[in-house]
């Protein structure tokens, strides 16, 4: 079957704080989105590329047109307007999947440096029968769960630890996340039945697939596949671009 790659780039980039959508923020002199999209093109796994961009952003539409030209013929190209949250942006892209597409990778436009190897590992797991697969890394920090509480003497609002999940079983999850198209469509149809509070907790597509009871397989991610969220991440990505780290 044929594989589509959805690149979600419709976010506003509040935490990066550049005052423009994150996808347009320059990295190595090029818009962040250009790195992400050309990384997908160069991985050589996409029959279709669909980019979700902020509604009413002609500059971003122009960047996408340039990227289509750079990619050359041979890849079906779609650009859609994203929605109010990431899930809505994914659903806008799922609505334009071409005839014959059987698997889809959903990738953050905010991960400009994802190496080809990650795309290959995700694609290989789908080929080997996984209906859902995510790239992930072992976590380096000790992670605690917390609950709200008050300090005994003052009643000041603080948090206290409610548990320490064993670190050996924790993974930090990245994209591209790969799915059988039909499975991801079912997961997103289910997502539409969630109330607003539950919908607000959804941070990736795999969560939605877990919720419909499908197994989600895990392959090795990459340190280079970091998501640019804060200015520190951007500094790190600039250093990665300069250095021999790729
Ligand atoms: N995204 C999207 N549509 C949205 C929100 C997010 O396509 N309505 C995309 C972003 O463009 C990004 C990815 O989802 O590539 C991960 O989201 P995040 O890192 O949170 O990006 P932003 O939402 O842009 O950043 P922030 O939350 O700091 O505003
Ligand atoms: Mg966001």
Summary, kept brief:
The chain is α/β, with parallel strands linked by helices.
Could you tell me the number of beta strands? 12
Considering the protein shown, what is the CATH homologous superfamily? Answer: Spore Coat Polysaccharide Biosynthesis Protein SpsA, Chain A
Give the mean pLDDT.
97
> How would you characterize the largest beta sheet?
8 strands, mixed
The Cα radius of gyration reads 19 Å
Helix-strand sequence: EEEHEHEHEHEEEEEHHHEH
Count of separate structural domains: 1
CATH topology: Spore Coat Polysaccharide Biosynthesis Protein SpsA, Chain A
DSSP summary: helix tally: 8
Structural class by sheet pairing and helices: alpha/beta
* Ligand types: cytidine-5'-triphosphate, magnesium ion
For the record, what CATH class applies? Alpha Beta
Proportion of helical residues:
25-40%
Q: What does the overall shape look like?
A: globular
CATH architecture: Alpha-Beta Complex
Low-confidence stretches: none
| % residues in beta strands | 25-35%
In whole angstroms, the N-to-C terminal distance is 30 Å
